[in-house]
Amino acid sequence: MLDVEAIRKDFPILSREVNGKPLVYFDNAATSQTPQQVIHAIVDYYSNFNANIHRGVHTLSQEATDLYEQSRQKIQAHFNAKFSHEIIFTSGTTHGINLVANGFSSILKTGDEIIVSALEHHSNIVPWQMLCEHTGANLKVIPMNDQGELVMSEYDNLLSENTKLVFTNHISNALGTINPIEYIIKKAHAVGAAVLIDGAQACPHIKPDVQALDVDFYVASAHKMCGPTGVGMLYGKEAWLNKLPPYQGGGEMIAEVTFEKTTYADLPHKFEAGTPNIAGGIVFGTAIDYMNSIGFDAVAQYENELLEYATEKLLSIDGLKIYGTSKHKTSVLSFNLEGIHPYDVGSILDKLGIAVRTGHHCAQPIMDYYKIPGTIRASFAFYNTKSEIDALVEGVKKAKKMLS
Amino acid sequence: MTIEEIQNEIIDEFSMFEDWEERYQYMIDLGKELPLIDDQYKTDSNIIKGCQSKVWVHAEMKDDKLEFTADSDAIITKGIIAILIRTFSNQHPKDIIDADTSFIDDIGLKEHLSPTRANGLVSMVKQLKMYAIAYQTQLN
User: Fold this and answer.
1) What is the CATH number for A17?
2) ipTM associated with this complex
3) Which residues of A touch B22 (CB under 8 A)?
4) Which of A114, A180, B9, B122 is 20 to 30 A distant from A266 in Cα terms?
5) Cβ-based contacts of A337 with chain B (< 8 Å)
6) What digits encode the pLDDT tens for the residues A169-190?
7) Are A178 and A262 part of one and the same domain?
């Protein structure tokens, strides 16, 4: 059982006020808040270790390089990758997805097929559309049902020997649905297709084991799991990463350069051109340490308690509808009040110091499915409390009264 | 009345409200009361897309004054539109071009006209001024 009052003391921002009210932060699916331990590690890096890495012979550079590589090993251990060179530092999930999409542009040919899920963040659909335009491959979509779940029988029908790549998020950002990725990966491998999983929404809640999943590529962002913005990771199986061409040219990704020919560096440096986000990479490891010190089992159990409590309380409001009602979901509640635009509710909640996301959550296809302009999304983290949920419920009631 | 006089009148009205709730309630009521745009003009070509709410704008020249009608699918946005229409509609294009919108700050609704709010209002103000510029060019 986690001690939420003690945990809240780790997060300085949770004691600030917004519009004269104590902040209630329920936009965790957009970005998580940052604990003191992570903030301290950023300050410590710039105060004591700041240097460029993998280059200098001087002590500072070596110390910074060691910290950066130690962080890579922490990430490797956390995701249970076989080798640390299977972990590529990226600027975030989107970067990781683009890196893989770009790599496949030299592999795919006309008539090949890529399968994506209907629950995607629409910015995640764009790289695949670009890839299809470029290669002549076709994009297929796994449809969703009313509960906000992917329909696996339809997925089975889409798979064929033409399928070369399957892409889905592990957990939907708009609805919180946990997708059956074990099944998706197994079925894709049966037809010889590779699988890329977007773990941005999953990693704050669960600890994926990439070897047990047998996934080919897995991407995540540090800022969703108590780390800083602008850094993330791509896991790729060694064989796949060796097969994909480099994404960007620059320093660090080369072994030898003459004007006639360049040979590329070994993994992971082949994909890490230029000076990376060194502080971010190092502190990503600190964030992972922090999350593990809380413990993912305790996090899951507590967040589930918050989800059940909030679901029950919110549903007691007349005319409130929740979107995404799968039995397998994380602590995300997407909802609307009948006849009221989500933007109006969000504006009033903001006045009450409650931070929620409103809009289509960059998942337009899901909103089109439900025929709504958007939703109000409250997403909970392990540092939230039931009394904050009470404040949300009161806020929604107030908004309803003012707006109807 | 000139645009500035109307704006001062609105500032006066809002100064009577004691807190944000009264201001918002007033805007919501404005949003509910006004049939803002004729359905025939609620077309895709008149739509201004924000990430969060949609705004429709239609402009028409009557005599030498420009008349605006507009609407939104969100009621608070609609309330602010009602205020903007009250200031800018039935004015000479040149006066619309020269007018500023800082009175929105004075009545405590600044956040809704912030470019980060993505509700279509910033683009709407831009669009109103574009119409004014277009009609002014015709008049010259």
Assistant:
1) 3.90.1150.10
2) 0.88
3) none
4) A114
5) none
6) 999 999 999 999 999 999 999 9
7) yes
